Amino acid sequence: MRIALLAHLRHPIAPPFAGGLESYTWHLAEGLSTRGHDVVLFASGDSDPRFARDPVIPVHQEARFPGLEHRGDAGLRAHLDGGYAAACDGIAAGGFDVLHNNSLSRLPLEPRRLAATPTVTSLHVPPYDALRWFVHASAVPGHRITATSAALLRDWWPEGPPPGASVLHNGIDPAAWPFVAQGDGSAVWCARLAAVKGAHHAIAAARRAGLALTLFGPIEEPDYWAERIAPSLGGAIRYGGHLAGPDLAAEIGRASVFLFTPCWDEPFGLAAVEAMACGLPVAGFARGAAAEVVGEAGRLVRCGDDDALAASLGEALAIPRTVPRARVLRLFTRDLWLDRCEALYAQHLIPSET
Asked: Is the pTM of this model over 0.90?
């Protein structure tokens, strides 16, 4: 198939990944290409050059409009709309069999654009006012809509999803997150260092439980870092930086438990799945899709309760490391995910072939 992948533009689609959405899009491009599809990545121009790219904007938005995401900035909005409009026009004229839309833009959802190119739209964020109406209005025959979890699908359609909307769990390559039979007794946390990811709760719980903790991830909110995280570092609490691929997998694999502390309705929880693949049980907050992802591989408590989170660390540590690994292999592998993506694309092609 000839497949267009339309990305979110806040960060480049390149490792080390700024977050789960960037990782998702990169691995989708890599996986589909490996399976022999003709893939073109529509993303920022500073995304990974190993892919065939069609730049939507020259550089990712944070490079030109730092810190303005969700601020309603008119300049940023015009910049993104101009890029996405041109990209959608290029996709419509490009002879693609299908567009997999992973952007957070309303423009690919316009009726004339859905009519021009068979489209699969994957939802990666909870519903918010700037996008909600456009997604709901786009739920028309022929437009396939996916959510990364059943919890996220319920958030978008509390009364039940429309036809053509379904769950598409993320998947990882288990070989990239090797199983380690025994940890060193420490805890690990990995995500964007932003308030909604709750690293300050992980620090508080680790201290109460008497565990060493290492934090990994990009510093997305400098004020949050300076006020809530940096003053807490030292001794058993350390920051390990923002690592890519094998280096991050090695650091996570040597720990004994993963702290997962979303302070928003987490749409999936890719970092938790990666840690589970290494054999780490999870202690965390029951927000969003956390229970759906973690299941029997961890212990979850009410969001914001640091004492309960500290207690859950001991309970999680008692879970055999084979349990989280087995859950990943059963539910969240890259091959399962890519199989489901290809099946969604094929649903668009069947009418034209019969």
From this structure: yes
